[in-house]
Specification:
This is 4-hydroxy-tetrahydrodipicolinate reductase. It comes from Nanchangia anserum. Keywords: Amino-acid biosynthesis, Cytoplasm, Diaminopimelate biosynthesis, Lysine biosynthesis, NAD, NADP, Oxidoreductase. The strands form 2 sheets. A 6-stranded parallel beta sheet has the order 2-1-3-4-5-11, sandwiched between helices. The radius of gyration is 19 Å and the shape is elongated. The chain folds into 2 domains: about 120 residues, Rossmann fold, CATH 3.40.50.720; about 110 residues, Dihydrodipicolinate Reductase, domain 2 (2-Layer Sandwich). It contains 7 helices and 11 strands. Strand 3, helix 3 and strand 4 form a beta-alpha-beta unit. Helix 1 packs across helix 7, helix 3 runs parallel beside helix 4 and helix 5 runs parallel beside helix 6. Helix content is about 35%, strand content about 25%. By secondary structure, the protein is an alpha/beta fold.
């Protein structure tokens, strides 16, 4: 039986995570923590793993507090950069407590990222469009940023030429933000939840990869898989792909 705490339990993702943990037979929910609760041994109530869904401004501090408390974090909050990930990696290795941080826990989104990595070397052009509800705090999404980085790395490994783009004037930034040299466009629209399109183009052909998550419940199978796996994956695991056997 895995003892689980949820950090950010009063939020929408936190509430859904609590329900998911309570619905399975191999886990027990031992603590629900929110903004006013200290992250320490007393409040974590003997948890083995803590699922963290809070906000970008607080998530790194929460993860370090969990590592100090000897509890393995499974983190769905986005907004991480390479420096913050490296600090967590070093802390996890020094403490001997494992951690998992994923830009996205939806199986469809993880597969889109993997398929995008595989496709990138075969196409002249690539762009990423991510679409979310207007209450999302960060842009671009962690999923879109990770997708762009995977595309860029695959193109570098393949020795691909720079992507063609004759744009010389774009004072309003309409071509999107550049992540690792890949244009990324962020849409914030009422009625959306979490969606991503990856567009690849060659002369005379196009490949479109798309993931649509219509409800927060779509993330829960991935969250539960991460909770089950994190204690057996030393150090920091970044992304859900390794848990699903998609390591490369």
């Amino acid at each position: 039986m895995i003892r689980v705490a949820v950090i950010g339990a009063a939020g929408r993702m936190g509430q859904t995570a609590c329900q998911a943990v309570e619905a399975v037979d191999d886990m027990t929910l031992v603590a629900r923590l929110d903004a006013d609760d200290a992250i320490d041994a007393d409040h974590l109530c003997g948890a083995d793993v803590a699922v963290e869904f809070t906000i970008p401004a607080h998530t790194e501090a929460n993860v370090h507090a969990l590592l100090d408390a000897g509890v393995a974090p499974v983190v769905g909050t986005t907004g991480w950069d390479d420096a913050a990930l490296e600090r967590v990696r070093e802390h996890a290795c020094a403490s001997g407590v494992n951690a998992l941080i994923a830009p996205n826990f939806a199986i469809s989104a993880v597969l889109v990222m993997e398929f995008a990595r595989q496709a990138a070397r075969y196409f002249t052009s690539a762009e990423v469009i991510e679409m979310h509800h207007p209450n999302k705090l960060d842009a671009p999404s962690g999923t879109a940023a990770q997708t762009a980085q995977l595309i860029a790395q695959a193109r570098r490994d393949a020795g691909a030429a720079p992507m063609p783009d004759a744009t010389q004037m774009d004072p309003d930034g309409c071509r999107g933000g550049m992540v690792a040299g890949v244009p990324v466009h962020a849409v914030r629209l009422a009625g959306l939840n979490a969606h991503e399109e990856v567009l690849f183009g060659n002369t005379g052909e196009q490949l479109v990869l798309r993931s649509d998550c219509f409800d927060r419940s779509s993330f829960m199978p991935g969250v539960l898989a991460a909770v089950r796996a994190v204690r057996n994956r030393p150090g920091l695991t970044h992304g859900l792909a390794p848990v699903l056997g998609l390591e490369h």
